[in-house]
Amino acid sequence: MSDRLKALADAGVSIWLDDLSRERIETGNLAELVDQKSVVGVTTNPTIFASAISNGERYDAQVRKLVADGADVDKVIFELTTDDVRNACDILAPVSASTKDDGRVSIEVEPTLANDTPGTIASAKALWTAVDRPNALIKIPATLEGLPAITEAIGSGISVNVTLIFSTERYRAVMDAYLAGLEQAADAGIDLSTIRSVASFFVSRVDTEIDARLEKIGSDEALGLRGKAAVANARLAYAAFEEVFSSDRWQALKGKGANVQRPLWASTGVKNPEYPDTLYVTDLVVADTVNTMPEKTLEAFADHGEVNGDMVTGRAQEAQELFDQLAAVGVDLDDVFLVLESEGVDKFKASWIELVETVKGQMAAAAS
């Protein structure tokens, strides 16, 4: 087992792999990562599935059968992806049984529904029913239209991974949606202890967007702020988390068996090669959080990552000062977060189109 990854896990950070494929499942690679690399969860998205389906033959027989049965592309995608997630859930079931919150596998609602509340709710319920595993998480984007869908899903007893969170303001709305869902679930007589949730706060894209603006401004003061905003943003989010999950409202739900919605640091692969490749892991170590990493980041941390203790708690004031400096040099932070969410939704939709086209190609090959 990697000593560095074990040290990260021992610091209270749950290590989730941001990747899944049938090859990982069937060759035993996923089980090996759980056993040897401290991996205790998995996240997926359409791009991950598109890569898995296009780069291997392990889906071919199922695609041929589905095509022969008259399935359309949406049906094929649904069956392929929910099968993989179900099987990954089974591999991680022992982790789920032995820990309070880990052993989870996430699958995303169709991204084209990001601004469609009823459609998102229907998609979440269909995925939850199809996967049919208590350690699954349904990914719902934190768009304005996604917020009521989060409440409805949680209120129905569905465990949710809220994704595409960029700002502390939106994160507060996500936590409110979660608590509202728990209150609805309690009123419906659902056992709150069965519901789990994480809130995926995106990290690296914040630096990418803000660094570009700082470089456009070009002053020495502005350039000196590059590479600092993403971590500061996450630290401000964590302070909001601490506030909400110590409130009287939360305590009432906790008394009924509810679980904390843990912060999950997402998009932790470093985009700028000038920055340390483990930056968004090392600088965001804090207990009772999740860090979901692409395999490249996981391997980098296993090789040379450092755990320097809690890097988040009590650093909100320092983070706010950094944000004040960004505003002072001319960075419009409100616009930054609007752009990031809009681009995030567009990337999600493009990712879905990529998956659809990949599967259409596989279906055409199966039919020929």
TrEMBL record:
Pfam families recorded: TAL_FSA
Compartments it resides in: Cytoplasm
Pathway: Carbohydrate degradation; pentose phosphate pathway; D-glyceraldehyde 3-phosphate and beta-D-fructose 6-phosphate from D-ribose 5-phosphate and D-xylulose 5-phosphate (non-oxidative stage): step 2/3
Known catalytic reactions: D-sedoheptulose 7-phosphate + D-glyceraldehyde 3-phosphate = D-erythrose 4-phosphate + beta-D-fructose 6-phosphate
GO biological process, one term: pentose-phosphate shunt
EC number(s) from the headed UniProt entry: 2.2.1.2
GO molecular function: transaldolase activity
Similarity annotation: Belongs to the transaldolase family. Type 2 subfamily.
Protein name: Transaldolase
Record organism: Nocardioides thalensis
